[in-house]
Design brief:
Elements (H helix, E strand, L loop, with lengths): L4 E10 L6 H19 L3 E9 L3 H9 L4 H18 L6 E4 L3 H16 L3 E11 L4 E3 L4 E2 L2 E2 L7 E10 L5 H10 L4 E2 L1 H13 L6 E2 L1 E3 L8 E2 L2 E6 L1 H6 L1 H4 L9 H5 L2 E6 L3 H14 L7 E5 L2 E3 L2 E2 L10 H8 L1 H11 L6 E2 L2 H31 L11 H22 L3 H22 L1 H4 L6 H22 L4 H11 L2 H5 L39
Parallel strand pairs: 1-2, 1-14, 2-3, 9-15, 14-15, 16-18
Antiparallel strand pairs: 4-5, 4-8, 6-7, 8-10, 11-13, 12-13, 16-17
Helix pairs in contact: 2-3, 5-6, 6-10, 11-12, 12-13, 13-15, 13-17, 14-15, 14-17, 15-17, 17-18
The structure holds ligand ME8.
The site of ligand ME8 has 21 residues, from β1, α1, α7 and β14.
Length: about 525
């Protein structure tokens, strides 16, 4: 049987500070997508990692009296350990000083150089160390970098240039003829505007003299220089899946989905496709660009010091709750505001009240009125059919939304099933019917319907809230089935086995008090 492929990447993060909400968001989206595609039976590969080179690392090392290598290893380890701790899976955690990556960067530099695509020139411009690139007028607000709020440095030096502008006509045409290559559309338009209007967007400086920076990959054709960090970093997406000849490389590359924040649109929308074109590779299938998490109207970032730590959020609220908020509240492409109050409101409404209540009502009543086992239903009537129809609708919508990167909508569609099932319970009122021995069949039908709806909700939720889904499945006695589930088959109505033992449990998501109660010891 031929299996479909799915390749998803996150940016490789800089190693100058610990991971924060922004990195967590992109990595959680990648994890959820990979889990969803795996659930659909696809051969899936998730690549994440860290960007070890560049001046930022040298700056931190100098400040801390350490070496770039030690700093890069330290923070890279922090990223990998954090994703492990939070249950974010990856097929490879790449570091740009991994030997296979260093070799590939050198091979590509050699090829591009030999093909006459690299030239040696004098260059002068405004450099932002935060961005690790020369800025253009569009990047400046009042003479400062608009992301880092620091003035750039004027720099002039002799360097090697990748003749990127040669590929601009091809690239503009590619973006025009592949309307969803860069999505959502606003970023496609931004990329086209960069190509058409930006005066400063010339050829790409791809070297740094060792006299200024010796932390990087040495140029194979001039040992006095190291490779510019972005030229090195972008190539990670090829190293990660074994370009050029590892088994499955072609199939995976053909399905590649890059996830990036809008801060790195230019390297991904302009530098990267032209680099790929120079070596004869197709661009990735989609460049999926998301907005910023903002706190007090400012982008969360290391340099602004307003970070939200994923492990602190995990300790305070549980990681599934934080993960749910990230996926449910950000519309992919737009900025989103983070406050703990907003998050608590969302957790209480959706997870504690809506989903949590349905789980506890269903399982408590199954224990009381059906001996703690999935009961035999009567033939379905209209209300039961309506719940089953809500499920069918959700399965189709979730697939469409996930593939279109509208994860908040996919979650909304799943919660519509939860709503419909809660409404169904209110209509059937099994707690009242249970008082009448003549109506046992109706009670059992209602409980069967809720158990089956919850089983399917668990399947659909499993990419987004894996632990919660596993816990619901465990309580329904279908944990093993969830582990083997494949969409769309697993979401077909009517598969839960009558007689399966169910288990009540503590509330899945206890209501959180807001504002938090005063600390008695304070
Ligand atoms: O740019 N909101 O690394 P980086 C949402 N090494 N996402 C955010 C965010 C925020 N406030 N802040 C960061 C680099 N991110 C390069 C990448 S790739 C070949 C090289 C996320 O550590 C978002 O994905 O600055 C953003 O693009 C990325 O972290 C930048 O990470």
């Amino acid at each position: 049987m031929s299996r479909r492929y799915f390749y998803v990447t996150t940016p490789i993060y800089y190693v100058n500070a610990d991971p924060h909400i922004g990195h967590t968001y992109t990595t959680v989206v990648a994890d959820a997508l990979a889990r969803y595609h795996r659930l659909c039976g696809e051969h899936t590969f998730l690549l994440t990692g860290t960007d070890m080179h560049g001046e930022k690392v040298v700056e931190v090392a100098t400040r801390q009296g350490s070496t770039p290598g030690a700093i890069a290893d330290h923070y890279s380890g922090r990223f990998e350990a954090t994703w492990d701790e939070l249950g974010l899976g990856f097929d490879r955690f790449i570091r740009t000083n991994d030997p296979d990556h260093v070799k590939l960067v050198k091979d590509i530099l050699t090829r591009v150089h030999e093909a006459g695509e690299i030239e040696f020139r004098e260059y002068e411009g405004d450099y932002c160390v935060g961005c690790e690139r020369f800025l253009t007028d569009r990047d400046l607000v009042d003479g400062k970098c608009r992301d880092h709020e620091t003035p750039p440095e004027r720099r002039s030096e002799a360097n090697y240039f990748f003749l990127m502008t040669r590929h601009f006509d091809w690239l503009a045409d590619y973006i025009e003829t592949h309307p969803d290559f860069i999505r959502p559309e606003r970023y496609r338009n931004e990329a086209l505007a960069m190509l058409r209007e930006e005066s400063g967007l010339g050829d790409l400086c791809i070297s740094r003299p060792k006299t200024r920076l010796d932390w990087g990959i040495e140029l194979p054709f001039d040992t006095d220089y190291v490779c510019y960090v972005w030229f090195d970093a972008l190539i990670n997406y090829l190293t990660g899946i074994g370009y050029p000849d590892a088994p499955g490389f072609r199939e995976l590359w053909g399905t590649c989905e890059h996830l990036v924040g809008k801060d790195i649109l230019k390297p991904h929308a302009i530098f990267w496709p032209t680099m790929l074109h120079a070596i004869g590779l197709e661009p990735p299938r989609h460049l999926n660009v998301h907005g910023y998490w903002v706190v007090d109207d400012r982008k969360v970032s290391k340099s602004l010091g307003n970070m939200i730590s994923p492990t602190v959020m995990r300790d305070r609220y549980g990681f599934e709750s934080f993960r749910y908020f990230l996926l449910r509240d950000m519309s992919y492409g737009l900025d989103s505001n983070f406050t703990e109050e907003l998050m608590v409101g969302r957790i209480n409404a959706d997870l504690a009240n809506n989903l949590g209540n349905l789980v506890s009502r269903t399982l408590n009543m199954t224990a009381r009125f059906a001996g703690g086992a999935v009961p035999e239903p009567l033939a379905p009537e209209e209300p039961e059919t309506k719940v089953a129809e809500a499920v069918v609708r959700a399965v189709t919508l979730v697939d469409e939304y996930v593939r279109g990167l509208q994860i908040h909508r996919a979650l909304e569609a799943i919660f519509q099933v939860v709503d419909a099932t809660n409404r169904y319970l209110e209509l059937r009122e099994p707690w009242k019917a249970a008082k009448d021995p003549e109506r046992t069949g109706s009670v059992h039908t209602a409980l069967y319907t809720c158990c089956e709806a919850l089983r399917i909700v668990a399947v659909l939720l499993s990419p987004f809230l894996p632990e919660t889904a596993a816990e619901i499945a465990r309580r329904l006695g279908v944990e093993a089935e969830l582990a083997d589930a494949r969409l769309p088959e697993a979401a077909r109505w009517g598969q839960i086995q009558v007689g399966t033992s169910t288990h009540k449990g503590a509330p899945l998501f206890p209501r959180i008090e807001w504002p938090p109660p005063e600390d008695a010891s304070a």
